[in-house]
Design goal:
Family: Belongs to the protein kinase superfamily. PAN3 family.
Shape: elongated
Protein name: PAN2-PAN3 deadenylation complex subunit PAN3
Bound molecules: adenosine-5'-triphosphate
Structural class: alpha+beta
Number of helices: 20
Strand content: 5-15%
Keywords: ATP-binding, Coiled coil, Cytoplasm, Metal-binding, mRNA processing, Nucleotide-binding, Zinc, Zinc-finger
Main location: cytoplasm
InterPro entries: Kinase-like_dom_sf, PAN3, Pan3_CK, Prot_kinase_dom, Znf_CCCH
Number of strands: 16
Distance between the termini: 48 Å
């Protein structure tokens, strides 16, 4: 038989685990409903129906036609199931491997361990306790019977969470709102515990597990299984950008830069700008340098702005830093703390900010002359003019930040193209806030607050003019700059800049918003659109965490070294199907015997497995002596059973 072709086929014929070729020694049970009786059922298919368990009970947990004409055997429901025997030699628990008629193998030490009572529900405050049941469970309904006795906890598979039937919910007086996945209880996830908690504490059973809402999961079956895998991952451009940021955060420290090893609990300092040569004094008489550094206590990367040779005269100068640390705004680089230090062999002021990897200043991005480029037979302009749309975006973001600062009774005091950072697509943040408040501390600053805020507005207008003219000194040649502005930009923009830079009675930043009215709506639209784009990208990654959990289960189950000499572990029962499925997913070969490395196929199979699709596939053994037709639902059940066998073994005290 052509292994590849057989394995790749997706038969539509409805059947449960159908054996196509029976191996001589390890025969498979044709259907789950015929567990434990495969050989006999084959030879006498019309055997006494009353002796055969009803398939509906096995698959659905109950039979609607019980007592209404169904001729098959229905086990009594009220009967309390006995704890199963886990003796590997025992033949008394055939339900463990319903798919394959083979002796049951369970890992050593997996004897039943009572980990406390399984979760019970009290109905109407009465004493009746009913174990939760999962409707529509997979072929191993018998396994479910077992599992209702065991701890049903599976740290990996949330999908095994028991689902409460509506009538039970009624009895419990639990409103649907309690099951609303969107309304998670505060400080907890849907289980009331974090996912990691459940991983590390498999004994936690004293909570009621909530049903997983499958409607939250995207369609696992792409229209074309061979389609591009792009829909499962964030876009290349986003991934590349985030990857670069991550590389910057974790980049190794350049040696020999003469920076101290530790500055007040910050280590791995690395300058973000040249520290030698000719340098501009950005704060009056002071030189400043920005370093990337890691804080020892939390391991997070921060930006440290060091102002060299600063001598603190009054401790009170740090008071304004407290006010700044309280300001959190999307267009302001957040301040964490400030201190003075002698670690740099001088007396330096250090202000600690959030670090925004790969941020560049507006000056570097738009104004600094770029080297000439020669393209399409022409010399290209050094800096492309900034589109008006982008100028409005910058203007609104800055105005918003300034308003927040002014409303907090502070002034920014450095609004300059070298102190505004571009941290994402058209996303800007004002850096260096608070530095001037310490450097030029005045005990009665409030007396000058209005004046400082007016200066903020003037600096804001000058910055916008510089950006429109792409010249830092544009304000110095105001008339010429305004002419340039009028040629390239709308009168609305001209008016706003004129409002900001013209002298006159005191202005308020709030007045500006009256002038820009509808532009705000356009900006809001863009922000929301951007949010949608990012959310969509996140959606693409959503399922991947679940797939990793599935792969971890495969890793745990397959090729266990301690069962190397125990062929029944991988050659029988559920594990055999899992092994064949693993081969089907990962180890296919083409007609020339070359490995088929098709990520789409892997993702499609795993997603179908994850949701327990009814679709059937044909699994072929490596020796091509046997093949099975099973549904993903059944394979999922096998994995679930094999994994819970393992967890029971590993949790032995
Ligand atoms: N919070 C921050 N996160 C990430 N990078 C930052 C941060 N603050 C500043 N930087 C980066 O540090 C570098 C130096 O910043 P700085 O504000 O000193 O700009 P500059 O252009 O060197 O100005 P000046 O000439 O006034 O020193 C810039 O490349 C800037 O992108």
């Amino acid at each position: 038989m052509d292994h590849t072709r057989a394995a790749l086929s997706f038969p539509s014929r409805p059947s449960a685990a159908i054996k196509i070729v029976a191996p001589t020694t390890k025969s498979f049970s044709p259907t789950p409903s015929e567990n434990g009786s495969a050989s006999t059922s084959k030879s006498s298919p019309k055997k006494d129906f009353a002796q055969r368990q009803c398939r509906n009970v096995l698959i659905h947990g109950s039979c609607k036609l019980e007592g209404k004409g169904c001729v098959y055997y229905h086990p009594p429901r009220e009967k309390t199931p006995q704890p199963p025997s886990f003796d590997s030699n025992s033949q008394t628990s055939p339900q463990l491997s319903v798919h394959v008629n083979a002796p049951v193998f369970v890992p050593k030490g997996s004897t039943f361990i009572d980990r406390g009572s399984p979760p019970k529900l009290s109905l109407n405050g009465g004493n009746t306790a009913t174990p939760l049941q999962r409707p529509g469970s997979t072929a191993s309904a018998a396994t479910l019977v077992h599992n209702s006795e065991y701890d049903p906890y599976d740290p990996y598979d949330h999908s095994d969470a028991p689902v409460m039937p509506p009538q039970l919910m009624e009895g419990l007086h639990i409103s649907q709102a309690d099951f609303n996945s969107y309304a998670a209880p505060q400080g907890a996830d849907y289980n009331g515990i974090s996912a990691m908690d459940s991983y590390y504490s498999p004994h936690k059973t004293n909570f009621i597990r909530q049903p997983l809402n499958y409607h939250l999961y995207s369609n696992p079956i792409p229209p074309n299984p061979q389609a591009s895998t792009a829909r499962f991952f964030v876009s290349d451009s986003t991934r590349e950008e985030l990857q670069k940021r991550s590389e910057t955060v974790y980049a190794s420290v350049s040696l020999g830069t003469g920076v101290p090893e530790d500055v007040a609990g910050y280590h791995s300092l690395s300058p973000l700008e040249p520290t030698g040569g000719e340098r501009r004094k950005s704060f009056g008489n002071w030189h400043s340098t920005v370093y990337r550094a890691i804080k020892a206590t939390d391991g997070i990367t921060y930006a440290l702005r060091r102002v060299e040779s600063f001598r603190l005269v009054q401790e009170a100068a740090f008071k304004s830093i407290d006010a700044w640390t309280r300001i959190r705004h999307p267009n302001i680089v957040a301040i964490r703390e400030a201190f003075t230090t002698r670690s740099f062999n001088d007396s330096s002021l250090v202000v600690v900010y959030d670090f925004h990897p790969n941020a560049s200043t507006l000056f570097d991005t738009h104004i600094r002359p770029k080297p000439l480029t020669y393209m399409n037979g022409r010399i290209q302009p050094q800096n492309a003019p900034i589109p008006e749309r982008v100028i409005w975006t910058y203007l609104i973001q800055l105005a918003n930040a300034i308003k927040t600062v002014h409303d907090a009774g502070l002034a920014i005091r450095t609004i300059d193209a070298t102190k505004v950072l571009l941290t994402g697509k058209n996303r800007i943040r004002i850096s260096s806030c608070g530095v001037w408040d310490v450097l030029s501390f005045e005990p009665r600053r409030d007396l000058h607050l209005l004046q400082l805020q007016q200066e903020d507005l003037l600096m804001f207008g000058r910055l916008m003019l510089s950006l429109c003219c792409q010249n830092l000194a544009a304000y110095n040649n105001f008339h010429k700059s305004m002419e340039t502005m009028q040629r390239s930009y709308s009168s609305d923009l001209n008016n706003v800049i004129l409002f900001l830079v013209s002298p006159g009675p005191p202005k308020e930043i709030g007045n500006l918003f009256n002038m820009i009215g509808s532009r705000l709506l356009t900006e809001m639209d863009s922000m929301q659109y951007r949010g949608d784009v990012l959310e969509n990208e996140l959606m693409a990654e959503l399922e991947n965490g679940r797939l990793v959990r599935l792969l971890c289960k495969f890793g745990f189950i397959n090729e266990r070294p301690e069962f190397d000499h125990e062929p029944r572990w991988s050659e029988t029962g559920d594990r055999y199907i899992i092994r064949l499925f693993r081969d089907y997913v990962f180890h296919q070969v083409d007609e020339n015997g070359n490995p088929v490395v098709n990520l789409s196929h892997v993702l499609t199979c795993l997603n179908k497995l994850d949701v327990g699709s009814d679709e059937r596939i044909m699994l072929v053994s490596r020796d091509e002596q046997s093949c099975l037709v099973v549904s993903y639902k059944e394979i999922k059940s096998c994995i679930s059973t094999a994994f819970s066998d393992l967890t029971r073994g590993s949790t032995r005290p």
